[in-house]
Fold this protein.
Amino acid sequence: MLLYSLAIQILRAAVRMASAAGHPKSRRAWRGRIGWEDRLKQADADTRLSGRTGDWLHLHCASLGEYEQGAPLLERWRDRHPERPILLTFFSPSGVEGAHATLADHVDYLPFDTSGAMRRFAAAISISDTVLVKYELWPALIQHLTAHGTRVHLVAARFDAGRHPMSAWGWFIRRHMQALRTILVQDAQSAAVAKSFGVSTSVMGDPRLDRVASNVLQAPPAQVQERLDRIGRWAASRPLLVVGSAWPPEWQALASLQSRNTEWCILWAPHEVDAGYVTEWAQAGHTARLSAWEEDSANADEREPSMIILDEIGVLKYAYGLADIAVVGGGWGKGVHNTLEPAAFGVPVLTGPGIGGFREVQALLQCGAAEVCHTPDSLAERALDWMKDKPKRHRAGAAGAQWVQQHVGAAERIVDAIERDGKGGK
């Protein structure tokens, strides 16, 4: 624990130094945590005045991606317990800034996982249950919450043999997992891996499927809908390729694609909207940022430019609903991003080769809803093939939407399990 505490202090110092040096994400992460304790206490007082009494439910996610798994749990919890306050915390700025219209009473950063900070966090408000999403296993948080009588749960977890914490080096985290009241995993493979390390779990499914299915049915927030309307007017009657969570490899593969099939238009949604390479993209011919194009659209031909860069977080998951084809980025990096979002809208999916460990991608491949391209050139060629073959892409899209609908329901099962544990008392 001493070595772990030292590592967290080094992380904390690194974020602070990067913030001082002007790194945008680090600056938001550092400054956003200043005053968290006062904000938490004020939120507690405000909820009491508004009539919400009792202990808090606390949901913690690493970033906006994990929030897509946690949001359906908040919806079910709010439906069942409208009188209870809900706290939503994130480690990354993408979650705090990108989680629009949440059902939580308070949204904030989780403090760095030092013993002192987590002791104050556990004492600041009365929390009945803390729900950690997927991988968010912070030892000091678990230790101090359980010491205060909070039930701590891990949900939507996915474990792979040899990957932390199910590896020879993961014993430290696994030891703290013994304090968790429930460990709910996405699939039987995760349960088998955990069992091989002596960790007991229950299979509940992936609540992201509930989330993406609800995206199709629910109206977006007003601010997001305004952006979608702009995109729709820009695309007009042209078919649309959406490149979601895009990185430079996807740009290098597809930026010239529109010139080879001019009846199409392309919406780019970079994974890092403020990265330097996005500025370079916006300077390419027939390309503009959505925010800049909006400012000039009243006096411009709304069919130009032929490529738009979506430079705002929180819109992409709905923008997939406007697409005819989706390319999901990350396949030439650490791993492909969320392929379920376009699949739920019935949009066929193309990715790069980095799909290891992403079992939902394997499922979409098996049902014919997605294709994996091993080189940038093959990505461009497969996109062109689908552009020219409307029946084929429609069949692929329909297969993906059907698969998503067949696997919803995890959120209800997870909330049921947390409530059953709560009936046993603290």
About this structure: Residues 219 and 225 are 8 Å apart (CA to CA). Confidence is low (pLDDT under 50) at residues 299-303.
